[in-house]
Amino acid sequence: MPDAAPVIYIVDDDPAVRDAVGFLVSSVGYEYVSCASGKELFDRLDAARPCCIVLDVRLPGLSGLEIQRELQSRNATAGVIFITGHGDIPKAVRAMRLGAVDFLEKPFDDQVLLDRISDALSASGEALARNAKQRSLARRLEGLTEREREVLALVIAGKTSKAIAVDLDISAKTVDNHRANLMAKAGVNSVAQLIAWAQNPSDGDTG
Amino acid sequence: MYMPAGKVRRDPRSRAVRTKRTFAFIFAAAVGGLASVGAANGEPPAEVRIGVLAYRGAESADGAWQSTFDYLSAALPQYRFTITTGTAPFLTAAVAAHRLDFVITNPGHFLELKVDYSASALATEEDLEGPPPAEAIGATVFAPAARAELQTLSDLRSLRIAAASPDAFGFRAASREFLDHGIDPLKNMTTDFVGFPVDEIVKAVRAGRADAGIIRSCVLERMVAEGAARDEEFRVIGRKPSSDLRCQVSTRLYPGWPFVKVAQTSPALAQQLSKALFSMQPGADEKAWVEPDDYASVQDLYRTLKVGPYAPFTKLGLLDLIFEHRYWAAVVIMAALWWLVHGVRVSYLVRQRTRELQLAHEAARLRGEQMEHTVRLSLMGEMASSLAHEINQPLAAILTYARGCERRIAGGADADSLREVVGRIAVQAERAGDIVRRMREFVRKNPAPQVPIDPTAALRDAVALFEPTAANAGLEVIADIPDGLPKIRADRLQIEEIVLNLLQNALEAVAAQPDRKVWIVAAAAAGRLDISVRDNGPGLAPGAAARLFDPFFTTKSNGLGLGLSLSRTIVEAHGGQLSVATNAADTGATFRFYLPLMEDVARA
Question: Nearest-CA distance from B558 to chain A in Å?
Answer without folding.
Answer: 8
